[in-house]
Design goal:
Length: 239
Amino acid sequence: MRIDFVTLFPEMVLGAVGHSILARAQAAGLAEFWATNPRDFATDKHRTVDDSPYGGGPGMVMMAPVVHAALESLEIGAPGSRSCPVVLTDPAAPLFGQREAQRWAHEERLVFVCGHYEGIDERVRERLVTEAYSIGDYVLTGGELPALVMADAVVRLLPGVLGDPRSHEDDSHADGLLGFPLYTKPAEFLGSRVPEVLTSGDHAAVARWRRSRQLARTREERPDLFSRADLRPDDLGLL
Ligand SMILES: C[S@@+](CC[C@H](N)C(=O)[O-])C[C@H]1O[C@@H](n2cnc3c(N)ncnc32)[C@H](O)[C@@H]1O
């Protein structure tokens, strides 16, 4: 998969993807990351990318021509027939979730558009953006961290990126429930023992215990998720 970031801060994004699993995915040829800077498409001598908002008000707005030119340089198809998702990072958009990550993991290419200042001229969204997502109900200074959050969530789902594909099958949100608690050696730590079932060698009992923990945790901590979860016939007996 190729992931493009349209950003005024390419070093920030390319620095972050140069570590850990994203870097390994890139080295293995499973993902590649590119950054395009709208400032490179500015035509004046100050390389201006922002201006004050029409109608007045504080702050600056990223100008349509430079962001538009940066996106067009990526050759992602004609307006209305984009060959891949072009995702605007936007705190006013619907919330990004695991479902979007799973959907995008089937794409060959993804483009993230990172806003700054007060945001991007709306005409970019109208012409070139195919989807917009927020990563949470708070406002960050720019779209780089949200784009990285979304890219990371997608890349770890690509086949071959995680050593054991079951890692993400067991993840929180993979099937609408929160994950189960994890333990590793030592079996006793500061007087607290690992739940006995986990050292019993009884795989069916371990699976039942984990499922029951997932159900209880989701019901207690995220009743909103629990009410939407696709429960199995025997789940109620585990609660
Ligand atoms: C300071 S914010 C602009 C906020 C905008 N004036 C508003 O009130 O909705 C600058 C940029 O950061 C990004 N951003 C900030 N918070 C975000 C969030 N929670 N999710 C996604 N993107 C976000 C967007 O790209 C946004 O254009």
